[in-house]
Design a protein that fits this description.
Helix content is about 85%, strand content about 0%. The chain is mostly helical and about 325 residues long.
């Protein structure tokens, strides 16, 4: 089993340039499927019409997200050395007040903020985000294919499930459950993430934190990764706020507001609204984030939870695999 899992992980990692747009296009097609079905039932409805609408809608979103992401990463990367220098000076002053020797102060400040690893990490995160956006053309192509062939694809999946031991009614129920659950989750998650990003960026702008639009975009994006994402999205803006905003009392207040937005959204509002929609326990969610993050990077952390939930829904409807699904559930 371990050898098989390692083999699957290796294949996913090697083929990530193809599989990430494929998975993303499939998830978006599932979320768009109720609207596509309604369009196709209309008098002038046709599969290609709903596919074109989905294509145009996603293309517009990708254009906006891509522009914000590219400009934000470029702006933050350009300003990073200056803020790193200021943070190094603060660390040096605190170390001097604590009686740390000159050599140790230089090593401490250099290791903390001026090391090449820190800047390289920022570059890698930015490159990953930009690379994700640049791969959107393939995602749009897959989306168009999935929507146009939605009924054919559902019939093929139905036949596949039946061939693997599912009864006819179980197969139909599984596909309906996957579509309903994932559609509800994706739209609710997107709405909550958008509100969180808007409030986070607005608070950063009012509080004087540099690059508020970019940090709002980061809060929106990383909110798709439960538990871990909001924490990662809040760390750098809070540090930057404490460094730049004056006086210190105001900086602390703004930092508390930024942290509270992520805490309330991720730990209170989102669980209340979504509930046990996906029925994944905390251990499964953490392992899913770890696995998909390792094989697909930051994008894998965003897609890991819905992909794992789809796998669990399929396992739950199989008599042989139902115990595994129960083990994954909450």
């Amino acid at each position: 089993m371990i050898t098989s899992l390692l083999g699957v992980a290796y294949v996913l990692w090697v083929a990530r340039g193809f599989l990430i747009p494929f998975a993303l296009g499939g998830l978006i097609a599932i979320a768009f499927s109720p609207l596509a079905a309604r369009i196709e039932r209309s008098r002038l409805g046709a599969p290609w019409i709903s596919a074109v609408l989905a294509f145009l809608m996603l293309g517009g979103i990708v254009g906006i997200v891509g522009t914000i992401g590219y400009l934000g990463v470029d702006e933050v990367s350009s300003a990073y050395p200056e803020y790193a220098r200021q943070l190094s000076e603060i660390v040096d002053e605190l170390s001097r007040a604590a009686g740390v020797s000159l050599e140790e102060r230089k090593k401490l400040s250099g290791d903390m903020v001026l090391s090449s690893q820190s800047f390289a990490l920022l570059r890698r995160v930015g490159a990953s985000s930009i690379g994700f956006v640049t791969g959107s053309a393939l995602t749009l192509l897959f989306l168009f294919f999935f929507v146009v062939n939605r009924q054919t694809f559902a019939r093929k999946v139905h036949q596949l499930l039946v061939s693997q031991g599912f009864a006819e009614d179980e197969s139909d129920e599984t596909l309906a459950t996957i579509t309903t659950t994932m559609t509800r989750y994706i739209w609710l998650k997107t709405a909550i993430s958008a509100i969180t990003g808007l409030l986070f960026g607005l608070a950063a702008w009012i509080g004087g934190t540099p690059f508020p639009v970019f940090w709002g975009f980061i809060a929106f994006s990383f909110n798709y990764a439960p538990s871990v994402g909001p924490i990662i999205a809040a760390v750098v803006p809070i540090i930057l706020t404490l460094l730049v905003v004056k006086p210190l009392g105001v900086a602390i207040g703004v930092s508390l507001v930024l942290g509270a937005i992520q805490l309330i959204s991720g730990s209170m509002i989102e669980p209340k609204i979504l509930g046990d929609e996906l029925d994944l326990n905390i251990v499964t969610a953490f392992l899913a984030l770890l696995f998909w993050g390792l094989v697909w990077g930051p994008v894998g952390m965003l897609l890991g939870i819905p992909l794992t939930a789809m796998i669990q829904l399929i396992l739950r409807c199989s008599r042989r695999a139902a115990p595994i699904a129960e083990l994954m559930g909450s």
